[in-house]
Amino acid sequence: MPETPRQDSRTAPTDEELRRLDTHWRAANYLAAGQIYLLANPLLTEPLRPEHIKPRLLGHWGTSPGLNLVHTHLNRVIKKRGLDALCVWGPGHGGPSVLANSWLEGSYTEKYPDATRDAPGMELLMRQFSFPGGVPSHVAPEVPGSIHEGGELGYSLAHAYGAALDNPGLLVACVIGDGEAETGPLAGSWHANKFLDPVHDGAVLPILHLNGYKIANPTVLSRIPEAELDALLRGYGHEPIHVSGDDPATVHRAMAHALDTALDRIAEAQRAAREEGVAERPHWPVIVLRTPKGWTGPAEVDGEPVEGTWRSHQVPLSGVRDNPEHLRQLEAWLRSYRPEELFDAQGRPVADVLDCVPEGTRRLGATPYANGGLLVRDLPVPSLDDFAVPVDKPGTTTHEPTRVLGDLLARVMRDTADRRDFRLVGPDETASNRLQAVFEASGKTWQAGTLPVDEHLDRHGRVMEVLSEHLCQGWLEGYLLTGRHGLFSCYEAFVHIVDSMVNQHIKWLRTSRRLPWRAPIASLNYLLTSHVWRQDHNGFSHQDPGFVDHILNKSPEVVRVYLPPDANTLLSVADHALRSRDYVNVIVAGKQPCFDWLSMDEARVHCARGAGSWEWAGTEDGSREPDVVLACAGDVPTQEVLAAAHLLRRYLPDLAVRVVNVVDLARLLPREEHPHGMGDFEYDGLFTTDKPVIFAYHGYPWLIHRLAYRRAGHQHLHVRGYKESGTTTTPFDMVVRNDLDRYRLVMDVIDRVPGLAVRATAVRQRMADARTRHHAWIREHGTDLPEVAEWSWNA
């Protein structure tokens, strides 16, 4: 049974303890403001002059005092209670505050030894902020203790819950800005408490920071009556604790009381669940913190109110280098923190400033939970031979690829039952996507009410289903960033909902790879199924294969895209993805019955190669170059290409046809553009430089042209794919509608092989007639032509 954090209801902090907390807070405020403005003179040992000021003033002051308050008080309770804690900073543009606190506690210097905890190090800290060659203004990967940048708002609370899953001893505080609270993903994230297991998971403490304004407008939650806000949060299943004010002494006392109250409630809820077996879902605490935007900064600038308004959002004094009055105000502002009381003559923080700071890895900037690669263990992926489907001859048997993968995932789930470091997430589609075998190993986590008709719900389950792709993505990102493994299964058309989220994660990984102190984490793995070609009952609304296009625009050292054509290749690709680190792997695979083309051994070799010729499918004899290359990527395009090759064998037996299958889409890129790309010699050898290439592709055809536009044979490349012609119809009619069908591919060969159009007129006409028969047949019978429905490679 996980250890339960202890309660600590001793007396409130004394006046002296509160004074020392205020000292820390003032030091953090001073450093935060200094990072926005100062190039030199960090301790104000001489009057400020324009040359001490940065030429470009960048950063966000408005949220920083509130974040500093939270950081200061979290330090106190972590140290007092001996907690392991992590904080997710939703207002990630408050980078100055988190940098300031990590410098004060020493974790920043440990990662960046040049930023010493003295005057030269302070000057470096200030100079590098939002400065060329320095660090970004947000809580970026460069900031110790961070797992969440917050440059794009909406994801903090989902990340926090993902971090808490299967970390029973961890407290995850999450500061939510009131602007962020207006986003859809954040609004959905309040429901995550219905999935938090008080036995096996840690606790999430949301801190809703209401400072009243966004960039230029008031925020909704700060302007509605407090009773209405209170009712909203209680309706979400939380017990609110309110902290309000602008007097520092009053707010310090109230914040200390609020944190003690919240942590006592958390400890009691966990103790009741873990020691007494209480199954009732807890109503977890949430702190509502109301402080002025830009608190302790300039009250007024140029006759306009600033503190407590939107004008303090970024840089309250913008003309400091040119306006003597602004320079005077800045110096008065910085000196109001009394830096001579906070730092000694060498610029080192004094003892009172550091009194609340925890030690070692309990410091928020030093917690290993924010550097998940330090904690991650290899996933026990079983031997693929245990799950492989037998393939004596290609194209004669069928399996549902994702169902085969589901058996492997069930084994992984069983083999991680004790260590609890693997989760499967998805928006209500695990069974729909044929992965239901996992329910034999783990149920679906659920803390809300249950009915007798419900299936597979389990308070301690590790399969997570919620009809919010945002929440699924956020959970999994938080889970991976804190050192665990997982897979996101989703309908292909609707994974676009998280386009922007995955973009941010890719940026995070790309930056982290350049930081030697950030250890590699498990990859973010997508399984996209229920794909464009088999939406037999859902139709056009469920047809969009464009996520792959979005992903391949991103950092090539991070992104990988795989289109396995059958069950065994899916196993091989999944094995690679689940073992990999620091990637975003996108796997597109069907859930409907699909022909088995390759044995397990053949699949391993083919997937390792990424793209290759299937000699058994073509008609090359090795004595001459092929007349045409039929290429394919994706399960349905592969079937249509092989059916077209079959027709060419029958009707044009003298034609030399090469069949190429592409599993790893990045192989089409030049080697200098992507680590998986092919060199020109290899590409030219596979696709030729002067022969027609008819490429049947799973998605939008122009992507293939974009990937291969620099290749010598690009002018001979003709791509067929999805072109937004969708509806509810038969499987084969979908490919006919988009000109991806076998008959059209044969016609393309005839049209593009020099001299063939004249010699093969009758064959081309036969193919066109087959398409005409198809249209008539499906409208009369509602099913595909028998020669299509009953086709197999050896038929």
UniProtKB/TrEMBL annotation:
It is an enzyme of class 4 (lyase). Signal peptide: none annotated. Residues 591-793 form the Xylulose 5-phosphate/Fructose 6-phosphate phosphoketolase C-terminal domain. Residues 14-374 form the Xylulose 5-phosphate/Fructose 6-phosphate phosphoketolase N-terminal domain. Its cofactor is thiamine diphosphate. Keywords: Lyase, Thiamine pyrophosphate. InterPro entries: Phosphoketolase, THDP-binding, Transketo_C/PFOR_II, Xul5P/Fru6P_PKetolase, Xul5P/Fru6P_PKetolase_C, Xul5P/Fru6P_PKetolase_CS, Xul5P/Fru6P_PKetolase_N, Xul5P/Fru6P_PKetolase_ThDP_BS. Its EC number is 4.1.2.-. CDD domains: TPP_PK. Belongs to the XFP family. This is Probable phosphoketolase. It comes from Streptomyces purpurascens. The lineage of its organism: Bacteria, Bacillati, Actinomycetota, Actinomycetes, Kitasatosporales.
